[in-house]
Amino acid sequence: MAAFMNVRRRKVYKQARIYNHNIYRKLFRFNRENVEWLGNHFLDDNEDPVETRCGALSPTRKMEIFLRSLGDPGFQQGVAVDLDVNQSTVSRTLITVSGAIYSKRNNWITFPNTNDLLGVAINEWANTK
Q1: Which superkingdom is the protein from (predicted)?
Q2: Axis-axis angle for helices 32-43, 21-28 (nearest 10)
Q3: Which of 24, 27, 36 is nearest to 79 (CA)?
Q4: I want to staple 23 with a disulfide (CB 3.0 to 4.6 A). Which of 19, 32, 52, 70 is the partner?
Q5: Nearest partner of 62 among 83, 31, 81, 33, judged by Cα
Q6: Which of residues 72 and 54 earns the better pLDDT score?
Q7: Average of pLDDT values for 16-24?
């Protein structure tokens, strides 16, 4: 009877590559510590805390995929091959990370108001005399 049953194969996940410091900086344009900080800052509170599957991406890994895509714009398939993930993972990660960064835009991006601009103009004018 066991010969007729469909037995599911065990899923095997790819092991993430470990890069030395110089290669890491060239690929992601940041040091490993900075990428970890960015991932934790922008993605930690957006993550599902009960996500424990073996294939789940950490915030740092998501930020690596995002930074690699920004640092070497081109086809998502190329980034996927470089980082040993699927193209669909790259696509979903770009949407997730850009959304997380966008949600915290007010903490990081401010535009000067009229008084700020006037103060700068007056200071520059005073420095030219």
Answers
A1: Eukaryota
A2: 50
A3: 27
A4: 19
A5: 83
A6: 72
A7: 79
CA-only gyration radius of the chain, Å: 22
Q: pLDDT-based confidence at 123, cuts 50/70/90? A: confident
Give CA–CA dist 65/71, Å, rounded.
10
**Domain map (residue ranges) of the chain:** 21-108
pLDDT tens track for 79-119:
888 888 889 999 999 999 999 999 999 888 888 888 887 88
Spatial contact of 47 and 59, defined as CB atoms under 8 Å apart: yes
Distance CA 27, CA 23 (A): 6
Residue burial 73-96, b: 16+ Cβ < 10 Å; e: rest: eeebeebbeebebeeebbeebbeb
